[in-house]
User: What shape does this take?
Amino acid sequence: MKKIATFVLLFILPLEMFTQRNEFDKGKIYRQAEIIKDKNGVRYSTIIRVGFKKQNLDLPRDVKEVKIEDFINQEVREAFKLINDKYGSFKLVKSFPNSSPGDTIIFSKILNRHVKQEDYSQKITLKFTSLVPIDSIINFFQKQKSVEYAIGPWEFQLAAEPNDQYFQISRWAYDKTELTKAWDITKSNSTIKIGIVDVFENGITTLHSDLQGKISVPNYWTNEYGGHGLIVSGIAGALTGNSTGIAASGWNSTLLLEQAFRDGPNVAIDSARSRGAHVINCSFIQTYDQDVRAAVFRAIQSGVIVVAATGNSELGGLPIPSVIYPAATTLVQRGRLLRRPHQYVGMVLMKQRYQVLTIVLARIQLMIQLILL
Assistant: This one.
């Protein structure tokens, strides 16, 4: 008999709770490296990312940098030497720094058992010392038998950037999301962890009073608490019932903050997963990115609910509204995937053993049902 596990991806426009849609400006674009086009349309940058189909590296977890001689396959070593001779020197690093070849089994909180995952240690990043024609190098790697994909630097933009000074609470938002009904069931608790993969900046080094005691930050954190990430964190988990500020969806939940632009969205998502997030919110939009897809899939395999914004502004000429990445990520690896568009405003309950994790978010646009064999 088949076991059926249902994963729900929630796509939200988080700041709509506080501002009018026409008050949004197109968000600032964050890039791993600058991309320059010449008069002929040739793209130049300093970053290339490559993923391999099979094991080509056998480096332990604590080794982050890669040398050409570390590659097992001689053809791969020769390919990198050709790139070095033609385009100049570069540095090689793991795209997922904390990965190792043995990390192919992961525990799923939803299924309550171990599941197999792809080998994330076989994804590497080339960092050139000077600008190179990235499309030529990408085409070269894509012709290699052992290469699964080759792509340029990651880039993303925030799903919404408000231009008004204050955010006014609207009763409409709470009624539409049925938050009060959800709070009658549960107000969550501090053991429920929400990963906020976002951008924290604007020179604000003091944590907002409505988030005091509610957050956990990684070791690399540099006391940046402002910007878009601050707003999203408040919506998800600000102190609630304290007669101050706003009322948050998560009420008593704990927030795990992650800087999306530090090492890239894929690393931030994977870090939130490894820190024990039950939910990971990604309020940014981008074009398709294999490394981000891999991080999202790994999180879902672990039983994490991934939330991604569908965007408030045009990206690549797409109309508004349109489902873009990482929200549009298709996750086909095991079993049969059924995907159907759906719009619903309400609450989603995930029963996990003896506790109910209640997440109330608006505009669910895609439900994915994975039937495990």
User: Anything to note?
Assistant: Helices lie at 74-87, 134-142, 171-177, 179-185, 228-237, 265-274, 290-301. The two ends are 9 Å apart (CA to CA). Residues 23 and 164 are 8 Å apart (CA to CA).
